[in-house]
Amino acid sequence: MRISVVGLGYVGLVTSACLAEWGHEVTGIEVSPERLRALNRGTLPFFEPGLDEMVARHRQAGRLEFTDSASGPVGSSDVVMVAVGTHDGNGGWQTETMLACLSQVVPFMHDDAVIVLRSTLPPDFIRQLPTLLRSLRDQAGRAPISALINPEFTREGAAVRDFLEAERVVLGVVDDPDRRGVGRLTTIYEVADAPILTMDAIDAAFAKLGSNLFLATKISFANELAALCDAYGARVHNVVEAMSYDGRIGGRFLRAGVGFGGSCLPHQVTMTVKSAALAGIPAPLLAAVDAINDRQRSDFVRLTRELLGGSVEGRRIALLGLTFKPDTDDLRDAPALDIARLLIAEGAEVVAYDPMEGARERSAEIVPGLVTVESAELAVAGSDAIGLVTEWAEFRSLDWPAIAETTRGHVVIDGRGVLDPAELNAVGFDYAAFGRGVQLAQDADHLEPAVVATATKDGSRILAGSFAQPESAGGMSAYRRGVE
Ligand code: UDX
Q1: What is the Rg, in whole angstroms, of the alpha carbon atoms belonging to the chain?
Q2: Residue 170 Cβ contacting ligand 1 at under 6 Å
Q3: What is residue 396's predicted lDDT score, i.e. its pLDDT?
């Protein structure tokens, strides 16, 4: 099939390359001259594993090309997919780009073609789509065209696989009286060997929204559970592992930590809560999901403060990881940036490292006062505390005995719960993680199992006490005092 993809951001570029992989002739249309120039030089605007190789291969084979001119390719395409941005950059929606794009594309499509919207759109906009598309065609003196929405469920870092081996494909019918659109997209997607679910457009939009809201809810649930575990001395990873064998629950997306970031989950939770409030619809569960996610970031700072004896002022804090998750260079709503801002506002010196060079450079521009360096070793040298914020693979195999020789203080806050507390305690680091409590190096030898102080509401009192009077009991006895 001849397919045009309008908008070569994250969704559009992955869609273009994967459709070419399935043997279609794809033209990607991009209005930004810089992005287009870079793409035509073979440079992708973001990092996504496997995508650069796939784009290069299909350009070489002539199945994939990039242009800034919509009218030519769109006029000869069987399917036109639109994947332009709909975020306003401030946690809200903007639909102007989509409106402008539709008015430049829809009038030029041939009568037999199908338009497919892949961007995530607000429900009100979806409801207006049939009228909007018909009026664009009327004004051009042309017959109506088939229109569908086809929400994407791709995760950054795994986007190529998520597209090619989708778990499900959702088609939402905007206007498709003779089922031409559903038929054509079914032909495209049946190679993915996934269930293809066809429904009204508004249902499809809510299927996407519901999926993301549920994933966010699972994460905030895990984080609330972690706080309860901390208060009572339980360890959340053991708790979640035991829960995960219950087929009704499962174990995925229940990793406690600094919470969710990125372009989808935070935006959709916040926007749903805001829109519900404006419409007078109560959404207390989602409001709590949002609040818990914000709290994780400030709790990371609180933990750091407590482990440093009550203040971060004048202390040097090393942050490991800046991107919102590993295997991406995306900094949108990244917890690390908020954490850095909060620490700097309290007078800390923050030195950060992330494996993505571009992310390091942009972070230093976004967060005034943030210093970035070129290796984890440089970041931690001379630090009073080390905070792991993004669980990049390289942070799992750091040489902690060597690091212990170069740091000033011996404190690690593991914001993703991926490090081994026993290994850190053994070389003198105090360790804290959400849902694993605080494990002090001084207690490591004589506490069995090695557990746990703090993160109750009284955490600061407990830890300040144990640090101010080193001879006083930390560990389990401090924890017991906390819950009495
Ligand atoms: C998400 C959805 O997963 C995807 O289906 C949708 O199309 C776009 O939004 P993405 O934003 O790429 O994908 O990231 P995802 O892997 O879902 O992670 C989101 C955030 O949640 C990350 O910050 C991650 O670190 C965090 N997370 C994830 C947790 O804190 N705990 C978990 O258990 C899982």
Answers
A1: 25
A2: no
A3: 95
